[in-house]
From TrEMBL:
Residue intervals of the Transposase (putative) gypsy type domain: 52-114
Species annotation: Oryza sativa (Rice)
Protein name: OSIGBa0113K06.1 protein
Superkingdom per UniProt: Eukaryota
Xref: InterPro entries: Transposase_28
PANTHER family membership: OS03G0100275 PROTEIN, OS06G0360600 PROTEIN
């Protein structure tokens, strides 16, 4: 019997009763419909998409930013390919750009400092980000959580835009040439680089 796509990505959810949703409802906007998970995530279901508690905890809350969609499209990955610390890395970068540097987070800037890596064979959570070689001292150090216990079991449904990269992936992320590509930052980014260096020291 063929394995269902949902089984390959996520195990049965532990968020299966209304009482399990209390924390989620405190974080997610009131107008976001939230429903309990089940034994097997539905790959596609009208007005119902899989979301993870760990992603919510690190800041991935509806509506998703333009930058988040740019990252998924550029690296040709699904949201569920990302590990919780990858989501945290994206959230830190976006917050850093907007609140401390005063610029909009962009792929060009992101890929100058960070590069995706693969966890071999993993479908859900098979991709994370690490500093690009040679950027020591140019970007902030992040102390991320060492381990997320059973994070794949804490999923629920919410309404997400019907975009391909927000659906359940059917296989692990695949490395492409875009993963290692880097855009040179011109002189217009000098002030941004200086500000980031100042924050990292």
């Amino acid at each position: 019997m063929a394995q269902d796509a949902g089984d390959a990505v996520l195990p049965a959810s532990r968020i299966t009763a209304e009482r399990h949703l209390s924390l989620i409802r405190k974080i997610i906007p009131e107008d976001a419909a939230v429903r309990v998970g089940e034994t097997r995530p539905q790959p596609r279901y009208p007005e119902r998409s899989v979301h993870l508690l760990s992603f919510t905890m690190v800041g991935l809350i509806l509506p998703f930013s333009r930058f988040f969609h740019e990252v998924l499209d550029f690296y040709e990955i699904h949201a569920l390919h990302l590990a919780p610390n990858a989501m945290m890395t994206l959230a830190i970068f976006a917050h850093l750009c907007k609140m401390f540097v005063g610029v909009r987070p962009t792929m060009r800037l992101f890929q100058s400092f960070l590069v995706p890596q693969l966890l071999q064979g993993a479908v859900g959570g098979g991709c994370y980000f690490q500093p690009r070689p040679g950027v020591a001292g140019q970007y902030i150090d992040s102390d991320l959580r060492k381990k997320w216990e059973d994070w794949k079991k804490d999923w629920f449904y919410t309404a997400l835009p019907d975009r391909p990269r927000l659906r359940l992936p059917t296989g692990p992320p695949e490395r492409s040439a875009a993963w290692l590509a880097v855009s040179e930052l011109g002189e217009e980014y000098d002030a941004v680089r200086d500000r980031l260096k100042g924050l990292g020291s």
